[in-house]
Amino acid sequence: MGVLLAIVLPTFCILGLRARVGASATGDGAAVSGLPPDATDVHWFLPGAFGPNTVYEFKTTEAGYQQWVQNRRDGDLEGPTRGAFRVLRYDDATADFAWRDLKNTIAYTWNEEDRGLYMVYDLDGGRAYYWWHSR
């Protein structure tokens, strides 16, 4: 039993520290929950135990975006605001984070000290972006 614990416990610890990156054609196959029913082309980066950024994005309608925000919304989100917005996303091609400047958006945001949450919809591209950071 001790040998088994010596092998299994470190394995689970190591896996818990690693980030999860992926994509799914539909929201049902995604590693993130709470997406609108019409979510497609979902991409995500979920940090390991100590990662500061959680980002994911997906195609949806404006109505799907609004439903998603309302389902996840707590009293602290500010918005909606409209206009240009810069959002952090994970770029699968480079396997790194990259800024995306969007010109025509709807955004709900929350910031406190060094933490923030951004739920942004690109009206021109029909794509929703989620970015949460802890520092």
Spatial sequence of strands, sheet with the most strands: 1-2-3-7-6-5-4
Low-confidence stretches: 4-19
Average pLDDT score:
84
Number of domains: 1
Largest sheet: 7 strands, antiparallel
Number of distinct beta strands:
7
Shape: globular
Structural class: alpha+beta
> What is the C-alpha radius of gyration, as a whole number of Å?
17 Å
- Helix-residue proportion: 10-25%
SSE ordering: HEEEHEEEE
Distance between the termini: 40 Å
Strand content: over 45%
Task: Provide an overview of this structure.
By secondary structure, this protein is an alpha+beta fold. The protein has one domain (20-133). Helices cover 20% and strands 50% of the residues. The chain is built from two helices and seven strands; from the N terminus they run αβββαββββ. A seven-stranded antiparallel sheet has the order 1-2-3-7-6-5-4. The longest helix is centred in the first third of the chain and has 16 residues, at 2-17. It starts with a helix and ends with a strand.
Task: Name the features.
135 residues, alpha+beta, seven-stranded antiparallel β-sheet, 7 strands, globular
Write the layout of secondary structure elements.
Elements: H1 2-17, E1 20-26, E2 40-46, E3 53-59, H2 62-72, E4 78-91, E5 96-112, E6 115-122, E7 127-133
Antiparallel strand pairs: 1-2, 2-3, 3-7, 4-5, 5-6, 6-7
Short description:
By secondary structure, the chain is α+β, with helices and mostly antiparallel strands.
